[in-house]
């Protein structure tokens, strides 16, 4: 059995071990002990805070194997991207080229530096250990952040985005960076990411990045080819997020050209199809029809818990049957409310 | 003997014969009787001053008086871009710097512009291959500057000349392949033909509106920004000697440079002088240096503007022209002519 | 009793009378008989067409009083805006101005000519006679287009927009036009609208409209004041559409600066909350709880019909009780499916 | 007698006294001992050629030899914009036309640019009020052109001068109120002060990046684009006489014009001449015209550059300077000097 819960101070050593094995990249867990400690403390403070307007809070969740008492995944959500500055991305604009006299009409893509994702809620740091990547636990982990957000709408924006790492080669070279950012920064991709600490909110981005649109057809073929493409390590996350309702075409990362998925919460399945149901003690009814994996979470902010259970279609139901051991994990009792959404 | 003169009504056949020799690459001189006839009519109206200065198109021909053949042609347009937008790319500089990273990057940018709207334009220079010897090319090209020096009030503050841009051996334009093709999706020569038909502004509609960083173009396109076609290099040098400069404007298709000058700073405006044709019995000839540099000399008549090269020099406001030379200029002793040394003084 | 149904040829005289009384403006019904005939014919052809990819179709609906056999409202939807060109609008961009050294960070609005709304489905021509503006019929009419779209997703895009007329004074002057378009077009607002026939897809827009962003703070106060503001005649439509889930801040009209509401279909209540229910003969059950106004439509393309009925909460139900006379109007029988959405 | 000369180490106090007279409005000459001391050190290193040409800052002072008071100061910067970005607005033209509507609209646009990066700059001209008589202003301002004519290799192709822009009676700038204020949200004078502290580039970060249509500015802001402060009009005329032109670049805050020229086209480069100081017994004096125009004359020494106005004229390569004049120039008979008529010939 696996549970997703907010990170705790005791998890720090486990997070350090995880950080040691995750691949290099900027959208995953921080790597140094200091930064991990900071992330955990910030999450604890954020969970405890009374929030009216989303700001600097960030929430870090872990996936725990209850049998092994082992952390095997992480996922985070920042309440408001760029809340201490501006979150910069490239907007992928389509420019219509029209000449009536020549009877020509076609469209050209251009990348424009923009700050439109500022104040969106920002999902990040998604990592799942290899042994649980195939199961419903990966989906549970990714979605738990949104279940939490759905239960605490005042802590988050109405829109969400997730940057996924773009394509780099074995030597750490990014074809997109080499064609775009390098001309201005005059340094290698990994050096630039190190310099900027993976941030997308720094003034030096405005100072150095192009002020005018980058016309895509003018970029070398290898740079065009990787625009909006994910690093292989991001495939699982990409599939989970697009199934959730995130869309990929509008924004890309200014450094590596990786996709930035985004959506209004109204377009996300967790928000539109989750049901608030009463807890009934029992095993899942095996009435007519097949079983589905459902994510089920309690509604308590600080002690947020989410699990995945097989369950018949809950559409039209007003209660869900949970065995006592699941109720214990979720810290709920018969008659309490839980939020359920099909995975 | 060769004379450059204002074109006349009777020159249409000769002009057509010349245009037939031009071949591809010169968009303003097509061997098309209708187009040439229209242009000739405009030119005659221009010299007759029956149309406003900005609509004028002064066409000059070089005539071989031995056989009355037209050996070359050139033109000055009163103003460009007043009926159809006149597009260029202007090259600008943007500095991106970050003190935090100690990076200081100077980037060149292309701005789609109509800045040269209203300028006068030197254009349509063509010399018949049979006459490409000696000073003939200079005589033909520079005749326009003497004309401008004589009639500066007819021209705007700024004069320009578009130079054909660099082409590879196979006739392709690296600049076009690196930029324009992505937006037009047609061949360079097709674009060139449309340009010849006056469709340049419609094509320009398809150009990206936003400034472009040159560093984002392929290297071979970057390399030819402002570079001329190799056959155009001598023409460029001639114009530069007369005071025209490349100031960062290029053609939107092939990135050929636009040379430009303030009219008041042209060599012809600064250095040309008026002189009186001296009577034979004067001592002008005796006092003149034994060997002189060739000198351009023109009459001062707008409608019947004529210009030749002479070996005579202007001394103290007088010049000793032979009877034949006077004949070529349609001038007689005592008339005022304008003179300009053919070549730039070396020590300048 | 009122019904919303596709326009028919016999409605042409009634539409002419309606057109005579509607206010001047470009987003309402065509004014000449020829254009009305064309619109009706195009709607009939569109309804009859087999559509795989949304294109030039447009669908015109009318609100009919069954008692009086009188047309008292119209509403239309174009399958794909600018399908014969490009639909131009101003995108309301926010540009971050950041200076780290001066510790200044503020944002500036700028209007950028864009074609992003091209291929959205485009709602227009909404008109309701004064006597039914207060009732649920206005909402029924506005929403019927979306009910139709929800039932025929292949006929429409995933995104929808609705331009609403902007502010003009009694003399027909538009402060926004005077500050923006007039500098390029050199003509009065009404002359320009007449010249362009109310279209937003013409090459001359590219030829004449500003190629670079219009910085809002530089505009005169009266032009800024009307940006995104609706003409008083559009208030009813605006309220209905924002309640439906449309958002107003991102785009404005290039001519009069009026708001262009837009939304992904996932954000529209008709798409997210409509239910497909079986028809049961009977009167509305008066079990516990209050009655709500529901829009109910049949599912037949050519004979689309929608009515509004008072009804208890249908959440969790799999059938809806309709009296025989309503079944007749909707051309359905016991056991057929209808689509219901609360108004 | 007044001499304009290269600044010396010992001039700091004199420079400070001058700067104390400047008042507000001149950002590069503040009465600040540290700033002035730094600048003086750079200037001395510039004349000594111990720093590279692009880092140099040639500072000239006008000295009253009667009392050894410094009466004025002016400078030439080797190159601008190489450590901090140098911003201007460039004014361009965009034509919007529709044949269908028969509309042809020529719109002026402002482009934020760093185009002038690397140009040499004339700056910091200040003449003490006590000395604002006669030719003193011209002498001071024009000394820089003679210096450039003598040492053209030290300068880049382009030379510029920023002119103070138009201000209303109350000291406000209509251009700033119409444009900059919306983006800076601070007072014009505060911006001016920051500029004085070298913060111009940080302020420019706040400027809109996209080209702006001038027609979208309030009318009073449109009206002053390229217009100078009324007290700056004479300085502008002086520079224009020397061959500098307004070419469409303006200050980003007050829209004051930038005058510019190619170095090779300055009047001083074209018209100044070298001459030998003639021995007393020569006939130069006798042959010279009875009354002459005043002439600027300088020595040809970089490190100890000195220049005066003389009534003597250069005749056939010789000039007859008095002993006092030779003393002012630190020159003796037989030395080579450079001469340039103070005033532009009227018939040009």
UniProtKB/TrEMBL annotation, chains A, C:
GO MF term (any one): arginine N-succinyltransferase activity
Pfam family of the protein (one): AstA
Keyword Lipid metabolism on entry: no
Keywords tagged on the record: Acyltransferase, Arginine metabolism, Transferase
GO BP annotations listed: L-arginine catabolic process
EC number of the protein: 2.3.1.109
Annotated NCBIfam families: arg_catab_AOST (TIGR03243)
Protein name: Arginine N-succinyltransferase
Organism of this sequence: Pseudoduganella umbonata
TrEMBL record, chains B, D:
UniProt name for this protein: Arginine N-succinyltransferase
Uppermost EC category: transferase
Database matches in SUPFAM superfamilies: Acyl-CoA N-acyltransferases (Nat)
InterPro entries, per database record: Acyl_CoA_acyltransferase (IPR016181), Arg_succinylTrfase_AstA/AruG (IPR007041), Arginine_N-succinylTrfase (IPR017650)
Record's keyword annotation contains Acyltransferase: yes
Keywords carried by this UniProt record: Acyltransferase, Arginine metabolism, Transferase
A biological process from GO: L-arginine catabolic process
Organism domain of life: Bacteria
One Gene Ontology MF term: arginine N-succinyltransferase activity
EC number: 2.3.1.109
Pfam families: AstA (PF04958)
Gene3D superfamilies linked: 2.40.40.20
């Amino acid at each position: 059995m696996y549970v997703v819960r907010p990170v705790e101070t005791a998890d720090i050593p486990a997070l350090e071990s995880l950080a040691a094995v995750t691949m290099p990249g900027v959208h995953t867990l921080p790597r140094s002990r200091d930064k991990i400690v900071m992330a955990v403390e910030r999450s604890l403070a954020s969970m405890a805070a009374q929030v009216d307007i989303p700001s600097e809070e960030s929430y870090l969740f872990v996936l725990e194997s209850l049998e092994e008492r082992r952390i095997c995944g992480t996922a985070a959500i920042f309440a408001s991207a760029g809340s201490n500055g501006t979150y910069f991305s490239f907007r992928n604009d389509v420019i219509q080229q029209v000449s009536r006299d020549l009877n020509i009409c076609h469209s050209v893509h251009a990348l424009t530096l923009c700050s439109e994702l500022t104040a969106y809620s920002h999902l990040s740091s998604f990592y799942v250990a290899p042994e649980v990547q195939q199961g419903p636990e990966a989906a549970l982990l990714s979605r738990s952040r949104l279940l939490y957000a759905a239960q605490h709408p005042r802590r988050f924006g109405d829109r969400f985005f997730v940057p996924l790492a773009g394509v780099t080669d074995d030597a750490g070279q990014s074809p997109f960076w080499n064609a775009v950012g390098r001309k201005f920064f005059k340094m290698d991709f990994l050096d630039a990411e190190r310099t900027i600490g993976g941030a997308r909110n720094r003034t030096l981005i405005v100072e150095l990045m192009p002020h005018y649109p980058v016309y895509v057809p003018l970029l070398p073929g290898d740079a065009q080819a990787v625009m909006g493409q994910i690093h292989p390590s991001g495939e699982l996350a990409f599939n989970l997020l697009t199934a959730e309702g995130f869309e990929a075409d509008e924004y890309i990362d200014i450094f590596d050209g990786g996709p930035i998925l985004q959506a209004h919460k109204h377009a996300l399945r967790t928000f539109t199809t989750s049901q608030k149901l009463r807890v009934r003690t029992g095993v899942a009814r095996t009435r007519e029809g097949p079983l589905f994996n459902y994510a089920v979470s309690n509604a308590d902010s600080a002690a947020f818990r989410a699990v995945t259970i097989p369950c018949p279609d809950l559409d039209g139901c007003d209660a869900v049957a949970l065995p006592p051991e699941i109720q214990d994990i979720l810290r709920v009792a018969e008659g309490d409310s839980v939020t359920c959404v099909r995975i | 003997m060769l004379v450059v003169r204002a074109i006349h009504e009777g020159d249409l056949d000769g002009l057509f014969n010349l245009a037939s020799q031009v071949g591809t690459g010169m968009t303003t001189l097509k061997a098309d009787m209708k187009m040439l006839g229209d242009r000739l009519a405009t030119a005659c109206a221009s010299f007759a001053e029956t149309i406003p200065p900005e609509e004028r198109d002064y066409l000059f021909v070089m005539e071989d008086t031995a056989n009355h053949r037209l050996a070359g042609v050139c033109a000055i347009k009163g103003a460009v871009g007043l009926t159809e937008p006149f597009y260029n790319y202007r090259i600008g500089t943007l500095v991106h710097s970050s003190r935090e990273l100690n990076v200081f990057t100077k980037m060149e940018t292309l701005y789609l512009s109509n800045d040269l709207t209203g300028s006068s334009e030197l254009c349509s220079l063509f010399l018949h291959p049979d006459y490409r010897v000696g000073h003939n090319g200079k005589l033909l090209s520079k005749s326009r500057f003497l004309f401008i020096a004589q009639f500066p009030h007819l021209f705007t503050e700024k004069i320009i000349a578009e130079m054909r841009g660099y082409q590879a051996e196979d006739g392709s334009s690296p600049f076009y392949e690196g930029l324009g093709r992505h937006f037009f999706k047609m061949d360079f020569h097709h674009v060139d033909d449309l340009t010849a038909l006056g469709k340049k502004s419609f094509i320009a509609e398809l150009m990206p509106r936003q400034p472009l960083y040159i560093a984002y173009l392929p290297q071979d396109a970057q390399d030819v920004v402002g570079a001329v076609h190799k056959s155009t290099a001598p023409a460029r040098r001639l114009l530069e000697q007369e005071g025209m400069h490349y100031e960062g404007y290029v053609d939107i298709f092939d990135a050929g440079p636009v040379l430009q000058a303030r009219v008041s700073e042209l060599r012809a405006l600064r250095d040309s002088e008026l002189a009186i044709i001296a009577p034979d019995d004067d001592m002008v000839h005796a006092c003149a240096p034994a060997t002189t540099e060739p000198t351009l000399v023109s009459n001062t008549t707008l409608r019947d503007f004529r210009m030749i090269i002479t070996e005579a020099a202007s001394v103290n406001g007088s010049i000793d022209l032979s009877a034949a030379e006077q004949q070529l200029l349609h001038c007689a002793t005592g008339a005022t002519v304008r003179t300009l040394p053919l070549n730039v003084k070396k020590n300048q």
